[in-house]
Design brief:
The complex is a heterodimer of chains A (389) and B (303). Chain A is of the alpha/beta class and 389 residues long. In chain A, the strands form 3 sheets. A 7-stranded mixed β-sheet of chain A has the order 7-6-8-9-10-13-14, with helices on one face. In chain A, strands 2-1-3-4-5 form a 5-stranded parallel β-sheet, sandwiched between helices. A two-stranded antiparallel sheet of chain A has the order 11-12. Chain A is globular. Chain B has 303 residues and is mostly helical. Chain B has a single domain, classed as Orthogonal Bundle (ABC transporter involved in vitamin B12 uptake, BtuC), CATH 1.10.3470. In chain B, the strands form 2 sheets. In chain B, strands 1-4 form a two-stranded antiparallel sheet. A two-stranded antiparallel sheet of chain B has the order 2-3. In chain B, strand 2 and strand 3 form a beta hairpin. In chain B, 52% of the residues are buried. The chains are: A alpha/beta (389), B mainly alpha (303). At the A-B interface, helix 2, helix 7, helix 8 and helix 9 of A face helix 1, strand 1, helix 8 and helix 9 of B.
Chain lengths: 389, 303
């Protein structure tokens, strides 16, 4: 009996020592630090929170497989930009000045990405945007800037060429919220519709902007109602979109409501109330819940295990994507040097199997082969994919 | 014609919120010559207080008092809560630095604003919250072709009752006379036996209480509340105060309603994107020709 006890004690000790030495071994190799700049506070904090969770899950999955560069763990360092342009540049500086930050994933909102990417460029840090679709962002000849999300012109074209014919709409109302993303999507949609407008097939009956910080949109909506549109395309963000759909329905706008890619999420449904949110359409990039390939399933499983849900916004998953491609680039190129990573991302990475499907980048840093889809909100608040072909 | 009437009602609804909040700015400025920048955030705090009262405990207040009783209870409790918060802010953020002059007090007000805003974020979270539909009646009315919601009528009536009540207190009661005397000249008022402390306590309770009630109404009417909402409403209400004449109670009411209607006009006849440009253009014009605002009285420069 005594002997067994002794044996037990010894084996426990040995085990403990073994684990401790493992710990020491892991500590021997410094972690690879990747920055995440996002709106942790501010009106879009829900996007920041989700991005943080998604990136941490992606890092956890890579670390569980043994990390990168021969056993180095990935560590995420957060910088909050509150979704403000000024704070965005400061957050970028904050990450850059920390010497061990290798590269950055940055942020939600094109108007924040714009100044921040200039800062990263100046200090030669690879930065991958996850929620910035404004077309011009990649057209500025930046060397270290990439994005895992699509572009607004793709989405605008999708709206004009697929969504409008799908609903057989003749009169279109377009409203934006005066942010660079929203104005961009609205204007590009108008341009994409122009040829059909010239041919007299469709008519843009309303085109205006609202101020997203306000809460009362009955005045512009009453004006919009009088133009009697078939389709009402709102290209802004979810906090005010929830108010807009409810106020629009209350004053009697019957038009089909189509939101841009920042309109529908859980907060939108809470604010609008499900009675108004159901039947709302959105032009959106591919949503994670409709992916079935192994990388997506592994991600969804790990996320669900920790947070009991899956990310409802596509952007946070693009942030996780950005982490995966950065890890891949650092691992395969065997370097943490910005130029080597940027070169690998631009020229050597092709169809890397990531969470949202194969990722590769073109000459200017845009993701190759991103696409838009039409979704509708169901009665229970979930979304369904609509076949527009 | 019907459309314009409908739009006028829409503009008046927005304006009555501005007016209720503007009253708080104007009262405090009248007596203290201090712009209480925390006022907009107290308004937001009122919204959240009402949210907690109405939505928490599976809408306990609504279940107990009925839908209207719950709304009244939420507004009264928010008014009391925000009144207390207002006096607390005066104690903590303003009173210790009165001797230092007016400028430090303004900076302290901005600080208080940041503290409240972030406090709300810490307590209630950064996501926008929504008053659930079961606690607010959702009835559409069609009066002679004019589409209006029941809540819109409620908001308009309650705002006008509150404004009338305040007007009565300030203009017709002895205590109101004391407040007006303090606004004219505080040291002389003190010499006449007016208890300045009580007056200050009263205005820092009453102004925020009105703001808190406006906050609950904004929550009930629009459903969406967010912790940053105080900034935009505060800015607009402050503009309304300037437009009507700062320190003048009827001026704040007029300024608020007028601002709502001006915004509506700009939105309808120019473009919603440029309505603020239109509104501030009018404001600049008013200030060029009447620097003290529409109803503001000339303030004699003290030497």
């Amino acid at each position: 009996m005594k002997r067994i006890k002794l044996l037990l004690v010894i084996s426990v000790l040995v085990l403990a020592l073994g684990i401790a030495s493992l710990g020491v071994m892991a500590a021997d190799k410094p972690p690879v630090v990747i920055g995440l700049q996002g709106p942790i506070t501010g009106p879009y904090a829900v996007e920041g929170e989700m991005a943080k969770q998604s990136v941490e899950i992606a890092a956890q999955l890579i670390n569980e497989k043994g990390g990168i560069l021969g056993g180095r763990m990935i560590e995420i360092r957060i910088a909050d930009d509150a979704c403000q342009p000024k704070a965005g540049a400061l957050a970028a500086m904050k990450l850059i000045t920390q010497k061990d930050v290798v590269a950055a994933i940055q942020t939600y909102g094109s108007f924040v990405v714009l100044p921040a990417s200039d800062v990263y460029e100046k200090f030669k840090k690879v930065n991958i945007a996850y929620g910035a679709t404004v077309t011009d962002l990649t057209e500025r000849g930046l060397k270290y800037f990439f994005r895992t999300c699509g572009r607004t012109d793709t989405q605008a074209k999708f709206f004009a060429e697929k969504v409008v014919p799908y609903f057989n709409a003749k009169k279109i109302a377009i409203m934006n919220n005066n942010t660079s993303f929203s104005v961009g999507l609205a204007e590009e949609s108008r341009e994409a519709l122009q040829s059909r407008v010239d041919a007299g097939e469709v008519e843009i009956v309303y085109f205006d902007a609202i101020n997203p910080e306000e809460t009362d949109f009955t005045v512009p909506l009453t004006k919009l109602r009088e133009t009697n549109p078939d389709v009402f395309y709102y290209t802004g963000h979810f906090p005010e979109a929830g108010l807009i759909i409810r106020q629009a329905r209350e004053i009697g706008i019957k038009a089909i409501f189509v939101g841009g890619d920042a309109v529908v999420n859980q907060d939108f449904i809470n604010i609008a109330g499900i009675e108004y949110a159901k039947g709302v359409y959105q032009t959106q990039e591919a949503l994670i819940e409709f992916f079935n390939h192994p990388e997506a399933m592994a991600f969804k499983e790990a996320y669900k295990a920790k947070y009991n849900t899956i990310p409802t916004s596509p952007w946070s998953v693009y942030a996780a994507d950005a982490l995966c491609v950065l890890a891949e680039a650092i691992d395969k190129s065997g370097s943490t040097d910005s130029d080597i990573i940027a070169d690998y991302l631009r020229n050597k990475m092709e169809e890397f199997p990531s969470i949202t499907g194969p990722v590769g980048f073109d000459e200017i840093g845009d993701r190759v082969g991103s696409s838009s889809h039409l979704y509708v909100v169901n009665d229970d608040g979930s979304s369904s994919l609509i076949d527009t072909e | 014609m019907k459309i314009i009437l409908e739009q006028l009602l829409n503009g008046l609804t927005i304006g009555s919120f501005y007016a209720l909040i503007a009253l708080g700015y104007s009262m405090v400025y009248g007596v203290m010559k201090l712009i209480n920048f925390a006022h907009g955030d107290l308004f937001a705090l009122g919204s959240y207080l009402g949210f907690t009262l109405l939505v928490s405990g599976s809408a306990y207040a609504t279940v107990t008092f009925g839908i209207w009783g719950g709304m009244i209870a939420a507004m009264l409790i928010a008014a009391i809560g925000i009144g207390i918060a207002g006096t607390l802010i005066e104690r903590i953020a303003y009173r210790p630095i009165y001797p230092a002059g007016r400028l430090p007090a303004v900076v302290s007000a901005l600080g208080a604003s940041i503290v409240i805003q972030n406090g709300i974020m810490v307590v209630w979270g950064p996501r926008p919250q929504a008053y659930s539909s079961q606690v607010v009646p959702s009835v559409m009315l069609n009066i002679g072709g004019i589409k209006i919601t029941l809540m819109q009528i409620v908001v308009l009536i309650v705002s006008f009752i509150l404004m009338g009540l305040l007007f009565y207190i300030i203009q017709k009661t002895t205590f109101g006379a004391a407040i007006r005397a303090c606004a004219l000249d505080r040291s002389t008022a003190a010499l006449m036996g007016i208890n300045i402390e009580t007056v200050i306590f009263f205005i820092f309770a009453l102004g925020p209480a009105l703001g808190g009630m406006a906050g609950v109404m904004v929550g009930m009417y629009y459903r969406k509340i967010s912790f940053v909402m105080g900034w935009n409403y505060g800015l607009k209400a402050f503009t309304a105060t300037i437009l009507g004449g700062i320190g003048n109670i009827p001026g704040a009411m007029l300024g608020g309603l007028l601002l709502g209607i001006l915004e509506m006009l700009g939105s309808v006849y120019i473009s919603t994107a440029y309505k603020d440009v239109f509104v501030f253009l009018i404001l600049i014009l008013v200030l060029i020709f009447r620097p003290t605002g529409l109803l503001g009285e000339k303030i004699a420069e003290k030497v």
